[in-house]
Amino acid sequence: MIAAYLKYLLRSGNEHAIHSPFLFDLYTQVIAAKKDANPDYAALKKLRKELLASDEQINILDLGAGSRINKSNLRKIGTIAKNAEKPEKFGKLFNRLVQRFQPETMLELGTSLGLTTLYLSKAKPDARIMTFEGCPSTADIAQQNFKKTAC
Fold this sequence. Notes:
Radius of gyration: 18 Å
Order of helices and strands: HHHEEHHEHEH
Largest sheet: 2 strands, antiparallel
Shape: globular
Low-confidence stretches: none
Number of helices: 7
Distance between the termini: 47 Å
Structural class: mainly alpha
Number of strands: 4
Strand content: 5-15%
Mean pLDDT: 89
């Protein structure tokens, strides 16, 4: 395994190995961007912490393949936030992608608690965002989160 990794390191390039100007700019300015100066990130991080700390339980209507982590339909919001929400780094990436491409309309399937939707909406507040959540209890929590963050 170590030999395979060393071989990978020797063969892999850095961002300068990307020949397309479009992809080079996308990678350096959006994907690999290190700036975290966006003031919206702090509010969303606070909301994520609140959700992770929540012991409130809700009844889940699971319309998918089910959870590999929790077989019960009664789940804590903190558990949902931990297992179903996208990690913070992906929320920030989605935010930067929306800022870069400035879409007028966005579609999200599976709102869950609404954190990813908030990252999208903060990047372009005047965009039309359609987001769907099949579980009424989870959708209610997402709606509360949207109101909390003035979305």
